Amino acid sequence: MDCTIVITTFFSGDKLEKCINNIDSKFKILVIDNGSEEKNKFYFENKFKNVEYLIPGENLGVPNSYNYALSKVKTRYMFTTQPDVKVNKSCIEKLIEAAKNYPNAAILTPIIYHYGKYFGGGDFQMLKFINNKLLNYKEKKNNLYNIVPSGDLCVEAVTATAMMIDTSKMREIGGWDKNFFIYYEDTDICLRFRINGYEILKIKGAEVDHIPFSSHMSSLEKDLDYSRNWHFSWSKIYFYRKYNRKIWAITEGIKQLVLSFMKIIVYFFNKKKRNTYSARFLGTFCSLFFIKPYYRPNIIKK
Hints:
By secondary structure, the chain is of the alpha/beta class. Helices cover 41% and strands 19% of the residues.
């Protein structure tokens, strides 16, 4: 099959194996292990003959993991996903088949369900940041994003939960932006593909189930929640600035700094919330002052 599966992992525990078990063994799978769990390489490559387990030696983050994989993929398509996603039967085959009808498509995605319920709101979040102005309606008030598409649907942007990407088109636009660590890299590639005249489609009948924020072991939730808030704040300001919205980026950044600082004071005696807003404050600060996204969760291997 002309598609390679790419799964990024970071201390995912037993979730990675469950994810692999749901993918047809006729597809080659590249696992990019950002946690450098070397014992897993022997286990997975011996149990699954279609798996190549790669350990880059550092935590590359999501977009640079995909760039790393892109340099090794030989097939026309690469299907990118994560350990907390269940790829339903024939999902990838349906995407490949659909691609024949849409030669101008750079990304084809399945229909995504969260806990069994259709999830389209993330696409709305992507779209509102791509537009020159923020949309003037709220996601909760727009029922369009709660309706399962009745057929294949051409859209402006999708989330990175599961994507089948045309590798030649991806190389043409230079791969993923290496400045991102996590968050907004999906919005960025969607926008760049659209600028270059390519299409993004959701394919009816191809489906995945996703349990958000669960790709790691539950014992790491505290560390990774801090990381998510730090990098989301950093990436948001970087994305605004990148697309010639410098004034908006500065304004939004200052607003985020003030709000986060106020929340730190309000929740000073609530350690969990204080850490959340501290992460947002620091991520925003670093992005505003052109400091690279240096933060990495400090995970102690056992």
